[in-house]
Specification:
The protein is 74% helix and 3% strand. The chain has twelve helices and three strands, in the order ααααβαββααααααα.
């Protein structure tokens, strides 16, 4: 009986150790287990898989992406799901937290091809950042901040970071992690090596970003060029107007003087002024024609400039997830 009791207590102890061991293993591998449970019944739709493939997400990144069951949504659905998102409006996606969902704004314009892909990669990197251990995050944060402070040249990315400092001061480095990984072509070697954890060829992501950004940068270059021409023309037109006003005043004075000579029957003096007066009239009329030509040219540039600006504004509207205002 003593032997039997000892054996029972021994088996009970071993079983307790086994339960504890399994609990420890489960705790250590909890993310892996929960990911497995989430993905067990999930098959990414073709459109979602295409986003992952286009950005060259490797298997690690695809897993991080897919555990959030990402969706591409139109404006109404996106705003419903991302009502409380704090990201800037032109980062057209929201990530709700570990395995809690990724939503991507649907952009239809062919000139903006690549937006959805870059947004997908951006949001996936938020999930990746959440999974970093404390030590890893501290190290990566230092690399990101060092690059930002000492090497970042891209003004568009700088502007985005400044926006995040105002809207999400506690998540700026997290946003740097997504921005640098998707929008910066050349990164320091250690950061480049780090992003290889997630992308087979990160340059493809940056190329997609550059392609749709070109729709704006090229138009902005044209607008800047038109603005420079308008700026140069405006002083010339104003000078020509001032010169014509002076000529007109001179013509009025000469006409008044000629009328006075005529009334005084001083025909010699009157006749002496006729030729210079007519020459001044001709010069004035030529100036008027020149001014009309300059104004027409100026207005033509304004129309061209505004047409490009309207195109840019339309693209901005298509890129904005905010509800568009309807005319009253």
């Amino acid at each position: 009986m003593k032997t039997s009791g000892g054996l029972g207590r021994g088996l009970s102890f071993i079983w307790s150790l086994l339960v504890v061991a399994l609990a420890v293993v489960g705790f250590v591998n909890r993310e892996y287990i929960l990911d497995w449970v989430t993905l067990r019944s999930y098959s990414p739709p073709a459109a979602i898989a295409a986003l992952a493939d286009a950005t060259t997400m490797n298997q690690t990144a695809k897993k991080l992406f897919y555990v959030n069951r990402p969706e591409v949504e139109d404006r109404a659905a996106f705003n419903k799901n991302c009502t409380n998102k704090t990201e800037q409006s032109l980062v057209l996606g929201c990530y709700h937290g570990n395995r809690q969902g990724i939503f991507i704004f649907k952009v239809d314009s062919t000139e903006l091809d690549g937006v959805e892909e870059v947004t997908a990669a951006h949001e996936m990197l938020h999930q990746a950042y959440d999974r970093l251990s404390s030590d890893e995050r501290q190290h990566i944060d230092a690399l990101l901040q060092n690059y930002y402070k000492n090497k970042l040249q891209d003004q568009t990315v700088k502007d985005q970071i400044e926006g995040y400092k105002k809207s999400e001061p506690d998540a700026v480095v997290n946003e740097m992690h997504s921005l640098f990984g998707t929008e910066i072509k050349d990164l320091p070697a250690e950061l480049e090596a780090y992003y290889k954890r997630y992308f087979n060829d990160r340059s493809k992501v940056v190329e997609l970003y550059a392609n749709y950004q070109a729709a704006f940068t090229e138009r902005q270059k044209q607008i800047d060029n038109y603005d420079a021409q308008l700026k140069a023309k405006k002083p010339y037109i104003e000078s020509l107007q001032s010169s014509l006003e002076a000529k007109y005043s001179q013509l009025e004075q000469q006409k008044s003087q000629m009328d006075a000579y005529k009334q005084a029957d001083n025909l010699a003096a009157y006749n002496a002024m006729v030729k210079p007066y007519n020459a001044l009239v001709d010069a004035y009329n030529d100036g008027i024609q020149s001014l009309k030509g300059q104004i027409a040219s100026y207005n033509s540039l304004v129309e061209k400039r505004n047409a490009i600006a309207a195109q840019e504004q339309q693209l901005q509207q298509e890129l904005s997830s905010k509800q568009l205002q309807t005319a009253p």
